[in-house]
Batch of 4 targets.
Target 1
Amino acid sequence: MTSRKAIITAAITGSIHTPTMSPYLPITPGEIARSAIDAVNAGAAVVHIHARNPENGMPSPDMELFREIIGTVNSSVDTVICITTGGGTGMTVDQRMAVVPEFRPELASFNTGSMNFALFPLAEKYDEWKHEWEPRLLHGSKEMIFQNNFADLERLCIAMRENGTKPELEVYDVGHLYNIAYLVSAGLLEEPVYLQFVMGVLGGIQPSMANLLFMKQTADSLFGAGKYAFSAFGTGRSQMPICTTSVLLGGNCRVGLEDSLYISKGVLAKSNAEQVEKIIRIIREFGIDPASPGEAREILGIKKKV
């Protein structure tokens, strides 16, 4: 009997955590690429990529940094690279979107609504910082709106369609599902859509099994069977419980240092691969295996780019 396959995504570095928070957070293009390659070798089918300034670790929209990361990963392993269009705090929508026409990735994140995206509570946990920008960025999020208005969404839909990129639709709250349903009805997004339930950002829905089930039930009512695939993740301590529940509900999941710096209570993860290995051990206890990159493309309807 063939077991069900679930797509495991590894979010390698993100733009939320800062160098002070963990010595294991990949910073340079070489570190980010190596960590992504190790995650793929551990069983991840998809790697989600942000770039950082190699001098101080600050999130960066620099195309040359992305180019180095993507080139190194692609020359080493077969994987689905999902490039961020969320970027980091303070980046313009144009800066965030530029990666799509530049690299024409198979998959790219697509944030589906404007929202408060609050990181400032993290700053209360540290008294000393490696870099001046870290507390400034975190505290500054108290006054920031993460902009993804309907004009932005329309532009991103068009850019992804023109460049053959599958949107990974980041759903931070239930209202974002209705935004996606509108974009489908307007002919801007094609079904089946790929939803990523993001749980735990202050300003969005919080991580609980009840909330995850509510999100899935809402997606069922809006799109129906065969019209969508989904993945989910929880931030911090909720990472593994939400990922496990998502897979048991028939979906996929995302782990990685972007979402949690820990492998267990009070123990920092030394790599993204360590988290990938842990979630694979868990899902295999339920008879579910990790999808290969090729199987992930088949599940998501992605045609591999040469």
Note: The chain has eleven helices and 16 strands.
Target 2
Amino acid sequence: MEASVAKGARKQAGAVGRARRRRWLDFKKPIPVPYVIALGIAVWVIFFGLWELANAAGWASDLLLPTPQKVVAALYELFAHEKFLHDVLVSVYRILASFAAACAIAVPLGILMGSFHAVESFVNPLVSPWRYLPAPSLIPLLLMWLGSGEMQKLALLYLGVIWFLITLIMDHTKEVRTELLQTAETLGGSRRQILTSVVIPAVLPNVVVAMRQMLAVSWTYLVIAEIVAASDGIGAMMWHAKRFIHVDKIMAGILVIGILGLLFDWLFRTGHRLLFPYLEEGQR
């Protein structure tokens, strides 16, 4: 009897142990916040550790792969003794201006395309092919049409995101439940009323998510836009540093772009939570 009880206790303890181990990899199950923070720190410790190891072991030339300390020193030099803050502000302006212009067209057009098949049938044959055309391939035309000034850079950033943003918003709009539309029609709502009172409020959270995703894509085009006949901006600084093999400054520029991207992503996620708190409550 005692042996049976002991055996059952061991099985129960083993089951509890397995349950604890599975908690790390349970599907869609949250883990405690301290673990989230610890894992986030751990991956960066490993990354910088491998970076330092590569330098210490001589796997790469110090000229082509400077140490993290040299990159941080170069970043300080850029901000303290060069006009890098101006470059950063110019790049942020270009991203925000071009992205705002893209959203001004993509959001209403994507909602209309997702709401009405006639609009989709008319516009989508034009939008779809552009999604497969790399925006940098348009640089020669943009230079001839707009010159090498500010408009050429804004146009490249604009064209790099608008087609995908239109498609994402259209697809999200199509996911609005048909029952909501049918109920509104039964209650006598007009097309305008259904669009403004049902469709837009229902799709708006996903519109913000799509905007957040495409803003990240806009940052990926920044360096391409700023290396062509540019005198300012993060990309221009990196291109000038390349001429003199200042890899530490190039990596400092990459670091700044990554930090700015994370900052804007955090702003979008925070704004999403503040604008749509009921979605957060529904997931608890």
Note: The two ends are 44 Å apart (CA to CA).
Target 3
Amino acid sequence: MHIRDIFSIHRTTFSFEFFPPKTDQGFEDLFGTIARLQELKPSFVSVTYGAGGSTRERTHDLIVRIQRETNLTAVSHLTCVCHSEAELAAILDRYAESGIENILALGGDPPRNLAGYDRSRDAFRHAVDLVRFIRSRSRLPDPRGFGIGVAGFPEGHPGTPNRLLEMDYLKAKVDAGADYICTQLFFDNRDFYDFRERCELAGIKVPILAGIMPITTRAGMIRMAELALGARFPARLLRAVERCADDAAVARVGIHWATEQCRDLLDNGVRGIHFYTLNRSDATRQIYDYLGVKDSLALERS
């Protein structure tokens, strides 16, 4: 289903993000997890994308399999890094031929195994250019072309310290054809509300989805800080984690914190909640249970 149709049907969307495993067994295990999540009836699921060749192919394979073997709407991430214009065109054509209608367009980072990679070799340096390219090129039967999402950063983009320029760049991505914004993870809803208000002031009117990632282990929290550069952990959350005797307790604290974030977001009219699952469904299922949401349409009926 095209992302615009999803937003027209769902007043509030719920979506899950996964990344393609490196092994065949991991791939099969993850697909089983995704298939079982069908019972929650998410609005859509997304799959991350690595610039390296093998990861790139696994993203495509997983997206196509979701499309063919489940009733879920799949959104594929796509980055500018390590791509010529011809390569990007070929990827988009493959998705169109497979019935994939939605892309999350990102600037991306070079793979860790390509230290010192020269970005001048890439066709595009910034997500706004990729959005324009996707919007200009579509082999889909739908005249609207691909549905396109872009990233937003409630705590600030790590590469753009100037918060005024940051909003200008985000507005440019929307003006280039983005249909919605999905935010980076955050732990203090005040950051999201301020971001949403600044988007409104900038004239950005597309849906904004809140990115939520529940903490489940201490090591995972450290990893989050590394992946989401500049991520702020509120002192109350840090104190709660510090009191935990083991990771089982950390998971309970993290799930409770994320649940309360979601509850507050829903009470304040969030357009959608996007769960960064780290390929695990238990935490997301528990949050659904605690919120009392049986599926992504339940909120519309409440």
Note: The chain has one domain: 3-289.
Target 4
Amino acid sequence: MKIHEDGRVLRFGAEQRHAEIAMIMLHGRDASAADIAGLAEWLPRHQCAFVAPEAAGNAWFPRRFLEPRSVNEPHLSSALKTVDNLVVELEDAAIPTERILLLGFSQGACLCAEYVARRPRRFGGLLALAGGLIGEQIDPAEFAGALEGTPVFLGCSEQDPFIPRERVELTSEVLQQLGADVSMRLYPGTTHAVNDDEIVQVRSVMASAVRESA
């Protein structure tokens, strides 16, 4: 069942055929592609092709990410397929996965992390801001494959009302187990929002991806 696959997609920044890197940006619940695209105002744009899909009904899946995966189907599978279709689109434009970064906030961060962990290979980077792997229980033994040193940044408030720090820490453990180069920061005194240091970390991962593409 197609739910999200034919939705609106914003494409901006460098033209794909001229881009050094690409970034898939995934918005949170009750937000839009335009909302997450707004983060690009603080990011370098001339070398990066940005792609921001929009979820049907402005939510990638209906229930909390900490509930059993089954209660979020078929929306979750459709959301993962939407991301996969965009990865294929970028590959067809001669941007290999090692030059593709995935960035998400909140529900979008959960989706990014889930996609990379379930379809591991060398990506240009994973930037999960206030999110973690999806499901009531996470068994690291269920994950297999190799992320081959993919740079990963996980950022979240220590007191985030929606994202338990334990899930962020477990997500870090799983991604490291898959061979990612993980950096995790839990910020005291912040809320469920993107902060200035997270933007700095995103810019750093982007710069590294550009250098490696040269």
Note: The helical segments are 33-37, 75-92, 107-118, 165-177, 196-213.
